[in-house]
Amino acid sequence: MNPGKYSGFLICGVDEAGRGPLAGPVVAAAVMLGDDFDVCGLEDSKKLTPLQRERQRMRIIRSSCLWGIGIAGHDIVDEINVLQASFLAMRRAIDAIDKSPSLILVDGNRKIPGLSIAQRTIVDGDALEPCISAASIMAKTFRDDLMREYAGQYPEYGFERHKGYPTERHLASLMRYGPCPIHRKSFHPVSTFFQGLSHFNQ
């Protein structure tokens, strides 16, 4: 990030992880990088290996950076849709930071509704702006940890491998065992199980 680009602003990068999976929450992160933080190595989380992500995550946690995590569970995704759940998680992440930013940089092309703070949307921001890259890394690693925890509760689905995304193995497990409590009922093909149950009960 060009130091003079947002001169005079307290900048907060925001990104989310988990819009596409069939199971689990949406997780958002908000990060304000410290002035002395070395941004070398920060990148879109999808372009980093798990080990690289974890190293960057620990650098952020151990530094003077301010960060917050926001979660919208699978039930909220089903209730208000995944886009609105993502916005909710982002607002929660921003609220979790001890210091109020004066400008929020949001990955993508949609501003976060319901905020009085100035915002700028940046397409591919997780690759272009270090503070958004940092948020991408924090959101991804935090969500991956949650899905590994869920894997212990529901071992037959392999959440520790695919993190709830619709891989071939996940779909095979879904067909064999049916949905578990953290599956998103509004997402196809999970929804087909509940549609069938609805017809059965009529």
Question: Would you give an account of this structure?
Answer:
The chain is an alpha/beta fold and 202 residues long. It has a single domain, classed as Ribonuclease H-like superfamily/Ribonuclease H (Nucleotidyltransferase, domain 5, 2-Layer Sandwich). 44% of the residues lie in helices and 15% in strands. The protein has 8 helices and 5 strands, in the order E-E-H-E-H-H-E-E-H-H-H-H-H. It has a 5-stranded mixed β-sheet. Strand 1 and strand 2 form a beta hairpin. Helix 1 crosses helix 5 and helix 2 crosses helix 3. It is globular, with a radius of gyration of 18 Å. 41% of the residues are buried.
Tags for this entry?
Nucleotidyltransferase, domain 5; alpha/beta; 5 strands; 202 residues; five-stranded mixed β-sheet
Unreliable runs: 197-202
> N-to-C terminal Cα separation, in Å?
58 Å
Count of helical segments?
8
User: Roughly how many Å is the radius of gyration?
Assistant: 18 Å
Helix percent reads 40-55%
Return the CATH class: Alpha Beta
Can you list the strand order of the major beta sheet?
Answer: 3-2-1-4-5
Domain count: 1
Largest sheet: 5 strands, mixed
Choose one word for the global shape.
globular
Average pLDDT rating: 93
Structural class, from secondary structure content?
alpha/beta
In CATH, the homologous superfamily goes by the name Ribonuclease H-like superfamily/Ribonuclease H
- Strand fraction equals 15-25%
CATH topology: Nucleotidyltransferase, domain 5
